[in-house]
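Problem statement: downstream parser choked on a complex file, so we are re-checking the raw output for the adenosine-5'-triphosphate run. The parser issue turned out to be on our end (a line-ending mismatch), but while we're here, posting the original submission so the record is complete.
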Amino acid sequence: MKKEIAVIGLGRFGGSIVMELSAMNVDVLVIDTDEARVNEYQDYYSDGIIGDSTDEMMLKSIGNNYDNVIVAIGDNIQASILTTLILKDLGVNKVTAKAQNSYHGKVLEKIGADIVVHPERDMGRRIAHRLISSSVVEYLEVSSNHSIIEYSANIKLENKRINDLNLREKFGISIIAINRDNDIIVSPDPQISILAGDILILIGSDKQINNFENFMERLK
Ligand code: ATP
């Protein structure tokens, strides 16, 4: 039998996942206690259940068909934890759970959630980086203290060779790729020069990246 994805909780986060999966032609089962929410997304899922995911019997009845479940319940932390616990007890292979805060996240990890996501915190961080530096196009956390940023090459960087910029020595960060007119130059040769419009893809610790961003802002 085909394994499908289930999304529990149709707030803005769960709802947007359902719409995205639907756009990718993935069959989705949705579960929400709120009938109005289930109706609101009816164009985007193949099966919908109005029900409480803390009801173990209900989850059991669908559990075997789903090896990928997203727990997108937000405010009701107790329901989010209990649902995650039941899903892991039922043997669901991959449970992705949304955390409201770091304590909630820690509990979710402890009880066996395979992936814990912090959408509000992550979005806040991305926006903060974009606010601090007008050249940061994108920010992606790769671990609790390392990130990748997409940095739009400004006039100060133009026509400089990667070697001469010496970013590794000065800031401890590395250019892992350059997006040049939508062509990706992976591990760019240190001898190549940066051109106007280049987007540099940089990796480093958060502290190193902050130092680089602040330094570049002061240079402008
Ligand atoms: P977002 O920020 O994504 O909008 P939120 O934090 O506002 O999320 P909530 O409103 O707390 O999210 O919950 C998301 C959805 O989860 C709601 O539609 C709610 O009805 C549903 N929900 C809450 N508890 C349960 C439960 N035990 N079983 C099924 N659905 C639930």
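For whoever reads this later: Residues 95 and 114 are 5 Å apart (CA to CA).
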